[in-house]
Amino acid sequence: MAMIEVGFERQNFHPLKRKSALLLKLIAVVFAVLLFCEFLIYYLVIFQCNWPEVKTTAYDGEQASREPVLKAMFLADTHLLGEFLGHWLDKLRREWQMERAFQTALWLLQPEVVFILGDVFDEGKWSTPEAWADDVERFQKMFRHPSHVQLKVVAGNHDIGFHYEMNTYKVERFEKVFSSERLFSWKGINFVMVNSVALNGDGCGICSEAEAELIEVSHRLNCSREHYPLYRRSDANCSGDDAAPPEERDIPFKENYDVLSREASQKLLWWLQPRLVLSGHTHSACEVHHGGRVPELSVPSFSWRNRNNPSFIMGSITPTDYALSKCYLPREDVVLVIYCGAVGFLVVLTLSHLGLLASPFLSGLNLLRKRKTR
């Protein structure tokens, strides 16, 4: 009787062992795919980005001096979803992507300053105080950074509304969190941060308050700046005959809506005399040369919600020169293909263990054995 009981227990043990082995394999595959798609792929892709080389030797008459290089990251249009239009799954997916991309870039590239060029939030223009506080808290978690890294943020139309829906409360609410400074200087380089939403008042070209503030910044630049400032604003101006987008040509940008009016652009160029303009808002890469000499580069969106291939700009900047390069983030379609492939592999593995599908490995092994026995 004892022998019969032992045999029965061994008979039940084999199916249990096979199920445990299958479960362990499934868990291992799921863990490996999640680890790669949600963590490692960001390191793999961003590791390929390098700071562009820039000339660091400046000549003052007959003397040569070595200029310090400032490493700056420029990203735009994060569009953190709000409580009205943001589905929880969309929030989770897109915000995790941006958080992992930003934290990985900070760790690998070690920038000294990061600029976010407008549209930080998607629903800032109409969010309630409670929703605003929640959005700000999520932003601060996602874009946390060491104390030695400067983070500069400029308002976009989704943060405070277009000129016809913007008001003092929305502007002050934004500036309470992100500061209201317009002129930022570091290592002899001047950055002018302009919210161009305020420059598109109905019929006024540039509104009087914004005009007065910009004239004051212009005076400060003329009194204290190094000869070549760097100027930045939040909405791109890729329109007109001189537009030459490097990636997407024939993009319809509506003047005074998607871009500044030509009059406003000319005044800004006259007052600030920049050597480079970096802007956001269009979600796409676009390059235009103002007057044939001042380049303006529109920075693509940082979020999968707006682009399948988000990216940011890396700038090596000195008081007399600069060099830019684009750093791409992981493509969303590549991540989805990996997940779909993993699901297919798990299905095949499960069916194979259940005996409903012959394992390709075992089939090949059996075929090889048959050939050897002949």
What do these coordinates show?
Helix 1 (2-46) packs antiparallel against helix 8. The strands form three sheets. A six-stranded mixed β-sheet has the order 6-7-8-9-11-10, with helices on one face. Strands 5-4-3-12-13 form a five-stranded mixed β-sheet, with no helix packed on it. The chain has a two-stranded antiparallel ribbon with strand order 1-2. With 374 residues, it is α/β, with parallel strands linked by helices. The radius of gyration is 28 Å and the shape is elongated. It has helices spanning 2-46, 88-109, 129-142, 157-160, 168-178, 208-224, 262-272, 332-353, 360-373, and strands spanning 57-60, 63-66, 70-75, 113-117, 150-154, 183-186, 189-194, 230-233, 277-279, 286-290, 294-298, 311-317, 322-328. It has one domain: Metallo-dependent phosphatases (Purple Acid Phosphatase, chain A, domain 2, 4-Layer Sandwich), CATH 3.60.21.10. The protein has nine helices and 13 strands. Strand 3 (70-75), helix 2 (88-109) and strand 4 (113-117) form a beta-alpha-beta unit. The longest helix has 45 residues, at 2-46.
